Fold each of these.
Amino acid sequence: MGSPSSHLFLFLFFLSLSGISGCSNYGLDVVKVDDNFFMLPGEGGNSSVVIGDSVILVVDTKMKQGAERFHRWVEDRAKNKRIVIVNTHIHKDHTGGNHYYENVEIIAGDYGTQFWLANNSREDMPNRWLSDTIVVDLGNEKAVIENVGQAHTFDDVIVYLENRKVVCAGDIVLNGYHPYLDETVGSNVDDYIVAMDHITDKYDVKNVVPGHGDLGTAQVIKNFRQYFVDMKAASEDIDQTDAMRKKYGKYLNLPVNKAGFDQTIKFIRSNASLRN
Ligand SMILES: [Zn+2]
Ligand SMILES: [Zn+2]
């Protein structure tokens, strides 16, 4: 038998281990935006989780070990609620955890089976191709899920949370990162700008969950739109190239070696020469 104070110590010790909510974060970074809305950065792309009255909405499922831990994190909070998953796009850093969710609706842009299998795995293939817009009623929130067409890939999907005025933009919008531009899955610089304009015209955006980088305000979209405008200018004019290399000197490259200042310039130049 220990003293009452040692009991208290043990109680506090276990409380701190389990976390205040009684759920573990499994070593994941968790940004609690409010009681029912979480943003989990990294381990692949950023993920968003909205805990509705009877449905829990998950945007992007991360990759590798992070995806497995994220799945446990979601299941702990889902309890008996139905899980709905949205993939913002086909890249593995946003879809690598899909196979952990059994008997769950997994929604992605309308790539179709053949294109999916040419660019991703069968085990992570979604079971619903979205070509337009659907609204999922979460009870305490309404989620507008829209295929905004071609930008980062051929069929990018965004999620807009009506009550919170938050857009989960996937890799159409990055915060402080150079984009990974890949023509084979449909990356197109002009279409990025069109897609961003569409988002800001159609939705009243207060906050943005970018595909990579910190959660921010609508200014994050403005900044990333300006990035493409600047890089287009830089691709045509050597003076601009030096100025923009300085301006975007702090931007990060993900994935390393496949994205960066020079890669963006090269991509825009080869796109332009294809059109001429
Ligand atoms: Zn990504
Ligand atoms: Zn991507």
Note: The chain has one domain: 29-275.
Amino acid sequence: MIDNENIFCEFVFFLKVRNVSSVEKLKCLTVFKAYINEFMNQPNNEIHISFSEKKTEKPFDIIIIGSGLGGLECGYILSKKGLNVCILEQNPQIGGCLQTFKRGKTTFDTGFHYVGGLEEGQSLHRLFSYFGLLDLPWHKLDEACFDEVILNGKPYRFANGHDRFVETLAAEFPAQRENLKKYASFLKQIGDDLYRSFEKKNEEDFYSTSVFSKSAFDFLNETITDPVLRNVLSGTSLKMELNPHKLPLYIFAQINNSFIQSAWRLDGGGSLIADALAKKIKAMGGTILTKAKVTRLIEENGKIASVEINNDEQISAKHFISNIHPARTLDLITESKQIRKIYRKRIGGLPNTYGMFTANIALKEDVVPYLNRNQYIYQTDDVWSYYRYEPGRKASCALVSYQAPEAGKSYTRNLDILTPMYWEEVEKWQDTYIGKRGEDYKELKRQKAEECIELASRHIPELKNGIQKIYTSTPLTYRDYTATANGSAYGIQKDYSQLMYTILTPRTPIPNLLLTGQNLNLHGILGVSMTSIFTCAEVVGMETLVEELSEP
Ligand SMILES: Cc1cc2nc3c(=O)[nH]c(=O)nc-3n(C[C@H](O)[C@H](O)[C@H](O)COP(=O)(O)OP(=O)(O)OC[C@H]3O[C@@H](n4cnc5c(N)ncnc54)[C@H](O)[C@@H]3O)c2cc1C
């Protein structure tokens, strides 16, 4: 309680101080709320503020705009390097796509659902070990079947471990055994080379020599001769936009490989990752302000001098990192000598991937059995056809993700169904805001949820009877909660044939403004974590980071 008493004293102290700035007021209110929440024994995930009078007197070395995974990881790396970091988040809750929401006792994920490669020697292990995230309550999915692809009613199992993965699918496609071996060994090689990318001289060098410049679709066609197996192997890839004309092989291979290594849910939801990082940043002296929307980046003498928060207060720093969409970042720089029109046009014109519709479904007790795997359900002969918007098309593909039950129970209390949703479907309401979009929008969501449930209940017979409540979100929800362009799920669409154009480096034309997050190269937890290293290397140097990442 000592800490909270101190906090309360600080609040009282600030109330007495006249002419406090709005940033200080914001801090006061947030801290006071923490005190009240603590006092009332409420779960509190809004308090991410390292509050001290001294801290605000000391200028910040780095201001990070946005507290998505990328922003928090950069905050962690740079705090660890002794820099004075301030992270500004527009929402009450940190985490961006890692945000969760709670209804009753149930926690729902809004974006993130599972990660791959957490065991020693696997893709994400070194990064998550460095970020101190391996101790979270990770829940391993079934090794014999972590993902199930159901194509027109027929299930196919994905097993962990490259050899087991091959053997499980070869049992269904015996004639493709050798091709499956080639496929799996190629993916493994890409995964094994992951950390070498940090040793390249520069990102341009890395992208131009790697499989970024090859097509995922062509690779599948060249390696696998059975069209059904091609669909099966692509079937777990709602985690990316399967565009046959654009998707780089690197993205397809790196993501799929990490899940073949091992697959994990997080008991308690994605916000645990954000909260763990925030706690460490604060412990190292960093500051995290929520409800602090950056409304302007102010350029002076060719550099960013300060940010404006909530159209009011300005805070300055030496360096700035934007964790938000690059096009939205440029919108914040209204006057600039460094940003040319052509650059703005190029970044603003880059297409984005499709968005997602999510139905978070609360279930009645003891009705729907828990499955320790994900289900990818398709009612189609071509899983590579969803990148195109087709007016009137019903939801015919979906990812079903179950929440692990309490210990000793074998039924789940909630599951999420996700299906691609296109900007065109919600564009009509683009000038509206959350909760105020009107009845026709509610009807669209109800209809979409019904289609998803119809599709899923063919394979989960208990689902319809088990539903207690449904919460839905669309690309508009993501746009309003994360400021992603057009509510895109995975950000800027990468194109293997136009790599230097669609893959961005952290650098911008303004020397002290860097970018980070999923829009730059590889999206997802693995990709964003890699990019955080690339971004921070621009400030502290790659060599020192590689050394720390190599530590056991
Ligand atoms: C539906 C869905 C499901 C997914 N499932 C998975 C999965 O299972 N596994 C996986 O690995 N990946 C998954 N992903 C992808 C992964 O979640 C993202 O790639 C990653 O979390 C993106 O992190 P980020 O740091 O780039 O940005 P974001 O999470 O988008 O964060 C950006 C932050 O910036 C803030 N912000 C925006 N504008 C401002 C402003 N002006 N001022 C202050 N703050 C601002 C936003 O509020 C937000 O908090 C999923 C994504 C979606 C959408």
Note: Residues 354-487 form one domain.
